[in-house]
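Open question from group meeting: does this chain pack into something compact, or does most of it stay loose? Before anyone orders reagents, we agreed to write out a predicted structure and look at it together. Recording both the input and the output here so the notebook holds the full record.
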Amino acid sequence: MTTQTLASQLKRILPRVTKPGRYVGGEYNSIMKDWSAIDFKVALAFPDIYDLGMSNLGIMILYEQINQQADMLAERVFSPWVDMEAEMRQAGIPLYSLENQRPLREFDLIGISLPYEQLYTNVLNLLDLAGMPVRSRDRDERFPVVIAGGHSCYNPEPMSDFIDAFVIGEGEEIILEVARTLQGVRGHSRHDQLRALARIQGVYVPRFYDVDYTPEGTVARIVPNTPEAPARVLKRIVPTLPKPFTHFLVPNIDTVHNRAPIEIMRGCTRGCRFCHAGMITRPVRERPVPEVMEAIGEIIANTGFEEISLLSLSSSDYIYVHELVEAVHAKYHDSGLSLSLPSLRIETTSADLLDKLGDTRRGGFTFAPEAATERMRDIINKSVPDEQLLEAARAVYSRGWRTIKLYFMIGHPEETLDDVQAIANLCHAVLREGQKIMGGKANVNVGVSTFIPKPHTPFQWVPQDTHEQVQQKIWLLRDQLRGHGLHLRYNTLQDSQFEGILSRADRRMGRAIYRAWELGCKFDAWGEQHFHDRWLQALAEHGLDPAFYTHRERSIDEVFPWEHIDVAVHKKFLIEDYLMSIKGETRVDCRDRCFACGILPKFKTQRSQTDEMAWECPPVKPVSERKRGADDGTRTSNVQLI
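Structure tokens returned:
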């Protein structure tokens, strides 16, 4: 299909679909290169709709990295919504890129972002819409090489049937190494292309590993079957965060996050035992304040965005946070610029920080205590005493915020109904503090999610709560969290089971993923599109028991499906932390004491030859200077600068 033919067909079908702006490209700051003049072409795919994918910082960073190369181009592609897909299939339109509107089959490399497991069937659908075989072994050198990266790829096995190679770790540097390698072996057999990729540290090629299983169904061993494949694939890391991306594409339509993000810190030292991101993004790296300030100025000049999000897993642990807030206030206090500071800790200083920005929006302030009893806090290694939360609530309400949002998890290891009742009690206590200050205007919004044991965390050995256990806890919270000023939201049982199944699955799950897609499953992250009965059918047809992946407690010596994926945190460290959780023992912040998790020695060797930076632990700031008490903070807090 020619570009002209595609354009004429799009003119006919776009008026018939919702939000046609998703499919036309041409955004301000998008990069359009001469297709015929470029040697190597990369399609960057986010397997969900435009509205979500355009808010993905990783895609934007890779987009810039590749397009800075004179002989390469990067173009974007997203999954069309169901109405557009139907029109495309009826008209015979293959999935195409937004910039030059070229079919995906014409690219040399397709890079797919996989931040969460619910996107798996979308990947299959994306490949099928592109007119490509869905399974990796059915694609030879005539097709683009398909790679995937992102947080869900730290257990790549469920998708190993469909992806040619996975990037394990951070992508800023490795993406160009992958592209240059493929450029050098273009025209070679697919086997030779993948052998070349397997030599790159941080690249995992599934077909170069054989997996054996025990009679009980667990993994017995994972063995490389070619000399190029390492026994363990060590994740890639960038020693120093690259200059922030500032030429954000301005979307054609409203997106989920209509703001520009700046990553001020990567990694976390808190050691919450349930937190996948906190384990896999070690070590901590922080940007200097001048670099952040320069990026804010460039974003405003380049995009016109009126809101900027300062991203990190734990903003209050960014050692320059007060300096940054004061600098932003000094420069932009009368500009109308809006900031969001995610992941502030539960402490009055978090409210003080926002006070310095002169907030007048008074929307909502979000805290994530996760648990409500001292026993559960010790188990999950996240200590937030009730009084500290109540003190922070008083500070927030007294500054004019009407709504406090509280996030909790249910289903933590060893949790009882008394622990769940404590969640309701704490929410009522927070509301009472608000009513003392604001009367009937005070609100507490409560979000409850079900704990999912994730790979590479200390809780990867524990069973997930059963349907019956979760239902009982939800019923208790629904009964207790009623009345004026209280609002409860929670995940469905099906969503929790689905995520739990895929999170710790092995490569046998690929057969069920394929069958579920055949049965019409896609957009599984969207409630109205998730057909749980079809997934259960697919699992049953292939003899896979959901409980085997979700509700089974693992032995300490079990070989995990992701055993050959090395995130540089020792399994010994994770075992020690898991056993400590059983005894209710806690660890302090890694900034205060190093527990030799393994991250630093493994990455002393990852520095580039031109990078003379010595790998050390993150700089320790005195506790008195940090002004932090315990261990949690907000997920999102919006601030209006006046």
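Observations to bring back to the group:
The radius of gyration is 24 Å.
Confidence is low (pLDDT under 50) at residues 607-615, 619-642.
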